[in-house]
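Exercise 7. Predict the joint structure of the components listed below.
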Amino acid sequence: MPEPILQVRNLTVHFYTYAGIVKAIEKVSFDVYKGETFALVGETGCGKSVTSRALTQLIESPGRIVEGEVLYYRDDGSVVDLLKLDEEQIREIRGNEIAYIFQDPHASLDPLYTVGYQIAEAMEVHEKVESIKEGIKKAIDILRAVLIPDPERRVKNYPHELSGGMKQRVVIGIGIANNPKILIADEPTTALDVTVQAQILDLINQLKEKYKATVILITHNLGVVAETADRVAVMYAGKIVEIGSVDQIFKNPLHPYTKGLLKAVPNPMTKIERLEAIPGTVPNLITPPSGCRFHPRCPFATEVCKRKIPELKELEDGHFVACHLY
Amino acid sequence: MEKVLEVKHLKKYFPVKGLFFTKGWVKAVDDISFEIYKGETFGLVGESGCGKTTTGRTILRLIEPTAGEILFEGKNVMELKGDELKWFRRKAQIMFQDPYSSLNPRQTVFEIIMEPVRFHGIEVNDPEEFVINLLKSVGLNEMHLYRYPHEFSGGQRQRIALARIMALKPEFIVLDEPTSALDVSVQANILNTLKDLQEKHGFTYLFISHDLGVVKYMSHRMGVMYLGKLVEVGPADKIFENPLHPYTQMLLSAIPVPDPEMAKELKAKRKIIKGEPPSPINPPAGCRFHPRCPFAKDVCKKEEPPMVEVEKDHYVACWLYAKS
Ligand SMILES: Nc1ncnc2c1ncn2[C@@H]1O[C@H](COP(=O)(O)OP(=O)(O)OP(=O)(O)O)[C@@H](O)[C@H]1O
Ligand SMILES: Nc1ncnc2c1ncn2[C@@H]1O[C@H](COP(=O)(O)OP(=O)(O)OP(=O)(O)O)[C@@H](O)[C@H]1O
Ligand code: SF4
Ligand code: SF4
Ligand SMILES: [Mg+2]
Ligand SMILES: [Mg+2]
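Solution:
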């Protein structure tokens, strides 16, 4: 039996904006197992980043976590609900046992400090080193671990002196500086070229094995999911519509949205006569469609789909889908 | 087949400005030659900064080339003046990546589409009906006529941009990452529309993208760029089946494919090549790929490899295939 490291239940986040209440994610539930790579996939605005940030209460005003629990199974056997911790307690965990790698290295690196200083600071905050000076020494090892050539020199560089790929490696370095148990990587390669993307994904995989970490990978790229994830959750308009192993999702997709998404992506290694497009556009989340949020675009929608919200059901071992067809 | 476009030894260097004088040159495009035939899609791929956009814009005379020749339907683009230049400006169009900045936010869809039509003096009997028909051909409708760009999604804005281009009845369209800012479900829609329009009107496309899956789906022939150089040109199917240039091989093997079984296989074979593209300011001598190439020999460091035809219509610039 796989052991859970996270159990997310009914996670709901709303943003209170002038235009109205944005129901960004609604009763999102999933488990993440120890040592796996769990992918959250879906199109722009479906709630991937909000979900991943809410796991450690990283939601800022005008947003609020309205409901839910995030059970975290610690190594010592204890279980905590991360959403019940106060500011100080969650800070001890965030960036330490649970660390993030964000999409945009420009936003996660401070242009005014050297990369060595920034890695050192991440360690000092969590008392992994006594001083920044000691941290900078350790930072050299971390830069080496993330495959930055000539780390003794690079540690003194400012972010603008590095290429995009190298910056992203530094961000990964900060993420792993404290040996996290869970590494949450939000679109870690989206801004990068494919050859650099391959290097970075390979690096994340190696680090995951080395530190026996669990990875939550957020991406809209189905190719990246197919090649790196063990299990996948597909999100649409703030809801999880399907969860399964990579093979279940790609070989036997059940939800009409997952099916559509897979047919809309051109696989460069096969001959495709015609891509199938999903009609319509993603709904706004202030007034999301009633019932199943996919119903205005779904070719199989029936009366019940407009009225009733479909719940996630387990149809085969570990394969969940939220759709009235099943 | 009829050539729409011929590019010969095209170069575009940008100055790197120092405090008082030019410190050097960014060789964004450095001596490339290719042809595009009527009714086809020519894909241009390569990593960020390799010169794809510069190539597309130089061809359209949106930026002046440093050297080289561009022939559009046999006419030298750099020498066009007056009415002939106006004709070229109408026949050769470009669609940009960013659906947000390419439309004037203060104009309605009707005005956006009619402005260039009036500029080019194209006679239209019933402007409203004319625009409605264009909107329908790109999957929009009369409801959208008097709305403003901010009322549309990204995919819809790209459709408006497309309708505006179509109003001018062009022959040739540079599509510079037309779907990169869009979601996959919307992207498929736009790509299909582009294909349908090509079939119906015989458009010729230069399709620029860094997404190899999209390029494979769209292109008849394609070129691969690396640091300002074309390294491989040929039919898209042949390049994907049998990539010749070591860089093309590395690029193709790095693509994550949306199929777990295939991905496992490809990943096992993948050679992850160290390093990143060097700067185009002082590109490596000889073959520009040599610092990252596992097959580099002595000659690669000294002399630039010539383009040679290895199989029918399939060209590569690499010393593995040429005699020095
Ligand atoms: N600060 C905010 N204020 C208002 N709405 C917000 C805010 N942050 C996020 N949202 C909304 O929450 C929803 C989910 O956003 P989220 O960033 O999680 O999407 P995502 O799946 O990560 O998309 P992407 O692929 O573009 O990163 C979106 O509709 C977004 O507009
Ligand atoms: N106006 C300019 N002035 C100076 N350098 C420029 C200018 N435009 C482009 N360059 C440089 O020329 C090179 C090629 O740029 P270009 O935009 O053509 O690349 P690209 O292949 O389109 O990349 P991307 O995939 O990122 O769009 C880059 O090094 C770029 O920095
Ligand atoms: S619940 Fe109904 S509308 Fe939603 S995906 Fe299933 S069939 Fe389609
Ligand atoms: S010319 Fe030499 S260095 Fe360049 S790609 Fe061919 S083998 Fe490699
Ligand atoms: Mg996001
Ligand atoms: Mg470009």
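Discussion. Residues A 48-49, 186 surround magnesium ion (ligand 5) (CB under 6 Å).
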